[in-house]
Design a protein that fits this description.
By secondary structure, the chain is an alpha/beta fold. The protein contains 22 helices and 22 strands. Helix 1 crosses helix 21 and helix 13 packs parallel to helix 14. The two termini are 53 Å apart.
Length: 597
C-alpha cells in the first residue's frame, strides 16, 4: 500500500509541477519588477495607521512575501526602524497617527508608546493623533496619548471604562453531554484546567488576574496623566463615571483635545508641517516609508564585526510534527528549530552574545526541558540572556531559566511554575447518549488508559498524579538553580501563579525590567562590546527556495483530493507511527490566551 501511495503521489506531482513552475516564473518576474525605493519630498508627514493587531515582530510568512506586493506591515520591529529613520530624515517634518481599535499585548503597546514618545522628545518633530468615525477604546487612546494634540469627530465612539478579562467555564456543558474531566495538576494557581472543573473563577485565579489588571491600569493611568495633566485619582474617577460614550464626552472630560471633522484634521496637520495650502500636504504612509533605506534617511550604517543576535521564540512549546504544507507560519517553538539556530550562532565567531526573545504561554514539559538544557550548554560558550515579551509563562519561564539573565517588561505575564495533565472520560457520552459501545482486546490491564471511554482506576489516578508531582519538583529544581534559591523558596512563588513582570522582579524571578534595547545593552556590557550590530533570527525564509524544496510534496497532497474516494483512502495512509504521542505529554501552560480589554 505504501508503494502505491508513493507512486501515485510522485506521478501527480510531476504533472502538476509544470503548472507550479509557470506560477513561479510569474512570481519571480513580479518580484524583480517591484517598486524602487520611495521618493520622499521635502516637508513630508509620515502617516501611521494604528489599527489591527500590533505584534512584536511581523509574521514571517514566505508565501505572503512572495505574492504580496504591498508595504511592510506594522510591528514593533518595523516601528523601531521607521521611527529611527524618521527622526533624522530632514524630509520628514512630523508624524500623524490615525488610531482606531488596535489589538495586541500591553507589552507591545507600551513599547510603541515609548518609541513614539522618544521620537517626539529626541527629534523635536511634532506628533498629532486622530481617529476616524470608528473611534477607539483604551488601547487606541493609550497610543494616541503620545501626541501633543488628539483630534476626533464628536460622535465617534470612545471607551474609557477600565479593563476586563472574560473567562469561560464548561463544567455544566460537560455534565450535560456526559463527559467527565480527569485533571492532574500541581499548584492552586494553575488555572488553565479550571474551565473544566467549575462554573466560576476560583479565589486563587481571581487573585493573580487582578494583579495583572492592576499593572495594566497603573501603566495606562500614569501615561494618560502625563498627557492630560489630570491626576491618576481624577482619571480613576472618570473611569468609574465615563464608561462608554462619544468623543464629545471625552472632550468635556479633558481627554480629547479637539473635536474636528476629517478636513479640519488634515488642515491641522498641514499647519503643524508649516504648509499653507492643505492641497500641498505631502503624506507617506508607514508601509511605504519603511522601504526607505537607512542610508537614504540619513543614518550611518554600523559596520562593526561584532554581532549580537536576537532569537525569536514564539508560540506554544511543542514536539516537532512534520507538516505537508510548506507555507505554514512558525507558530510553535520546537527543540529542532531552535537547536538549529543555536548551532549556527555557536559556530559563528562574529556572534558575541544572544538574546532569546520569548513569547510563549508554555507547552510540553519534555520539550521545555530539552530546550532548557540546550540553552545551558550554549551559555558555556557565549553569553545568552532572555528578554520576555507579552507572555513567558510556565514552559516559557522554564526555558528562560536556561539563560544567564532574564529581562522583562513590567507588563510581561510570567511565572506559572506548575504542571498539569488533562484527560476526559466520555463513557457516558458514548454509551448512554450516543448508543455507541466499544470493546477492547488488550495484553495488560492499563493498556487502554488513553482511550477516553472509561473512568481511570484509583491506581491509574495515583500514577498520573505522581508523574505530575515529579514534573513539578523538576520544575522547582530548575528554577532554584537558575535563581539561586532553595526549593521551598521557589515553591512559595510557584504553585502555578502568574506574575506581572514588575512583581516578578520583586520576587526574584526576573533580573531586570525594561525594553529589548536595555537587555541588549546589558548583554553588550557582559560581552565587553562598545560597538555592535544586531541581527535577528530566524531570518525570513526565502520563498522561492521553500517552494521549490517542497513543491512535489505539496502538490501531491493537494492533488489527492481530486481522485476517487477509494484511491484517496489508499494515499492518505497515516504517516505518524504513534498517534497518541501528543496526548502523553505533560503540559506546562498558563494560559493559552490572555485578553485584557
Amino acid at each position: 500500500m505504501r508503494f502505491l501511495s508513493t507512486f501515485f503521489a510522485s506521478l501527480l506531482a510531476f504533472f502538476v509541477a509544470i503548472g507550479l513552475l509557470f506560477i513561479l516564473t510569474i512570481a519571480i518576474v513580479a518580484s524583480s519588477s517591484s517598486d524602487p525605493e520611495p521618493y520622499i519630498q521635502e516637508n513630508t508627514v509620515l502617516k501611521i495607521d494604528l489599527s489591527g493587531t500590533l505584534s512584536m515582530r511581523a509574521d514571517q510568512d514566505p508565501f505572503e512575501a512572495l505574492f504580496n506586493e504591498g508595504d511592510i506591515p506594522l510591528s514593533i520591529e518595523s516601528l523601531t526602524d521607521v521611527l529611527e529613520k524618521a527622526a533624522v530624515d530632514e524630509r520628514i517634518s512630523g508624524i500623524w497617527l490615525e488610531t482606531e481599535f488596535i489589538g495586541g499585548s500591553w507589552v507591545a503597546l507600551e513599547e510603541a508608546h515609548r518609541l513614539l514618545t522618544q521620537f517626539k522628545e529626541e527629534s523635536g518633530k511634532f506628533v498629532l493623533a486622530s481617529t476616524t468615525d470608528l473611534g477607539f477604546d483604551e488601547k487606541g487612546y493609550y497610543l494616541a496619548s503620545t501626541a501633543e494634540t488628539i483630534y476626533a469627530p464628536s460622535q465617534a465612539y470612545f471607551e474609557f471604562n477600565g479593563f476586563v478579562m472574560q473567562l469561560s467555564y464548561y463544567q455544566e456543558l460537560l455534565d450535560k453531554i456526559g463527559v467527565e474531566p480527569e485533571i492532574f495538576r500541581v499548584g492552586k494557581y494553575k488555572s488553565a484546567v479550571e474551565q473544566w472543573l467549575t462554573d466560576e473563577i476560583s479565589p486563587a485565579d481571581r487573585e493573580q488576574r487582578e494583579a495583572l489588571l492592576a499593572q495594566v491600569k497603573s501603566e495606562f493611568l500614569s501615561k494618560v496623566s502625563l498627557k492630560t495633566g489630570l491626576s491618576v485619582a481624577e482619571l480613576d474617577d472618570l473611569m468609574d463615571e465615563l464608561y462608554t460614550g462619544s468623543m464629545g464626552d471625552g472632550h468635556a472630560a479633558g481627554l480629547i483635545d479637539d473635536l474636528a471633522f476629517p478636513n479640519d484634521i488634515r488642515k491641522a496637520v498641514a499647519e503643524a508641517a508649516g504648509i499653507e495650502e492643505v492641497d500641498d500636504l505631502e503624506l507617506v504612509d508607514f508601509g511605504r516609508y519603511a522601504k526607505v533605506s537607512r542610508r537614504e534617511a540619513g543614518l550611518q550604517e554600523n559596520s562593526s564585526d561584532n554581532e549580537l543576535a536576537v532569537v525569536y521564540a514564539s508560540g506554544a512549546i511543542m514536539p516537532s510534527i512534520p507538516s505537508d504544507f510548506p507555507f505554514e507560519t512558525d507558530d510553535a517553538i520546537t527543540f529542532e528549530a531552535l537547536n538549529k539556530t543555536l548551532d549556527e550562532l555557536e559556530d559563528d565567531d562574529d556572534v558575541k552574545g544572544v538574546i532569546l526573545f520569548v513569547e510563549s504561554p508554555g507547552g510540553s514539559a519534555s520539550t521545555s526541558e530539552l530546550i532548557w538544557n540546550r540553552l545551558k550548554t550554549f551559555s558555556e560558550t557565549k553569553p545568552i540572556y532572555t528578554y520576555m515579551g507579552s507572555v513567558a509563562a510556565s514552559g516559557g519561564y522554564y526555558i528562560a531559566a536556561g539563560t544567564q539573565k532574564i529581562y522583562a517588561s513590567p507588563n510581561t505575564i510570567t511565572g506559572s511554575i506548575g504542571i498539569f495533565r488533562t484527560m476526559f472520560n466520555a463513557e457516558e457520552l458514548m454509551n448512554d447518549r450516543l448508543g455507541i459501545t466499544l470493546s477492547e482486546v488488550q495484553t495488560d490491564p492499563h493498556a487502554d488508559i488513553l482511550t477516553m471511554t472509561r473512568p481511570l482506576t484509583g491506581a491509574e489516578r495515583r500514577a498520573l498524579q505522581n508523574a505530575t508531582n515529579q514534573g513539578y519538583e523538576r520544575f522547582l529544581e530548575v528554577v532554584a538553580e537558575s535563581r539561586n534559591m532553595t526549593r521551598d523558596e521557589v515553591h512559595a512563588l510557584a504553585q502555578g501563579r502568574v506574575w506581572p513582570g514588575s512583581m516578578a522582579q520583586e520576587a526574584g524571578l526576573v533580573d531586570g525590567l525594561g525594553t529589548l534595547d536595555d537587555a541588549l545593552a546589558a548583554l553588550a556590557d557582559e560581552a565587553g562590546l562598545e560597538d555592535y550590530v544586531i541581527e535577528r533570527y530566524p531570518a525570513p525564509k526565502d520563498p522561492i527556495e521553500e517552494l521549490l524544496g517542497t513543491s512535489s510534496q505539496m502538490m501531491a497532497q493537494w492533488s489527492i483530493q481530486w481522485l476517487p474516494e477509494p484511491l484517496q483512502e489508499v494515499l492518505n495512509q497515516p504517516m505518524m507511527e504513534d498517534p497518541k504521542a501528543i496526548s502523553r505529554q505533560t503540559w506546562a501552560l498558563w494560559p493559552v490566551k490572555i485578553d485584557i480589554q
